[in-house]
Design goal:
Length: about 220
């Protein structure tokens, strides 16, 4: 099938014997299998799904909520593993817990380190992973739309100071001077499920992240 690509998603739980044991094993399996991309998730409190019933690696971890920070781990992979030319993606970060300027910086940094192989997977997130940390959850989709617009505004600024009104992420003479790799920014893949999120995908994204079927969710 021409143009058909395959990706592998790996948990980044702190294993019993080494923080990177499971991650490295999955990464090397991905390289050996000639898979096209390697993805890691970005939860802070995954206990809702991280049980042996749903997640096999839960049996190998001392604590199911001991998730490693994904951007750090992808940077570690990029620095330590020179084999393969996999695209590296977040599957997915959310716009509640992370300021979009920080996300824009992290994705652009990984893109430069990997010579253009970074993918920014991003979505609304979930209430269970945001409210315990004090994140406002009254208008998550509106916040998401503004976050994506902010990332695009910073990336498209050409190093010029950016001022942008926003109810959630206003910019006031904000600088963003990291360059795109060979003129290209990381692809944005949006985990969108409901009609409004799918419209945002069409407006801002390079691709749709297939976490769940659009027919099964509402926003």
């Amino acid at each position: 099938m021409s143009g058909f690509k395959v990706g592998l998603a790996s948990e980044i739980l702190n294993a019993r014997h080494s923080p990177t044991a499971l991650l490295r094993a999955n990464y090397l399996t991905t390289v050996a299998s000639r898979i096209d991309s390697f993805w890691v998730p970005d939860p802070l409190m995954p206990r809702a799904f991280g049980t042996p019933q749903y997640l096999g690696t839960a049996k190998l971890t001392p604590k199911i909520d001991a998730y490693l920070e994904p951007w750090t781990m992808l940077g570690h992979l990029a620095a330590r593993n020179r084999v393969g030319r996999l695209q590296l993606g977040i599957s997915v970060t959310d716009t509640g817990r992370r300021n979009p300027a920080v996300t824009a910086q992290a994705a652009a940094t990984l893109h430069l380190l990997t010579h253009g192989r970074a993918i920014l997977g991003i979505g609304v997130g979930e209430r269970e992973g945001n409210q315990p940390y004090g994140v406002d959850w009254t208008k998550p989709v509106a916040r998401f739309e503004e976050a994506i617009a902010t990332i695009r505004a910073l990336w498209d600024s050409g190093g010029e100071l950016v001022t942008r009104d926003s109810p959630y992420f206003p910019l006031h003479n904000a600088a963003f001077d990291l360059p795109p790799y060979r003129g290209k920014w990381p692809e944005i893949w949006i985990a969108a499920h409901g009609p409004r999120m799918l419209r945002a995908t069409g407006r801002y994204a390079n691709a749709w992240f297939p976490g769940f079927s659009p027919a099964t969710t509402r926003v």
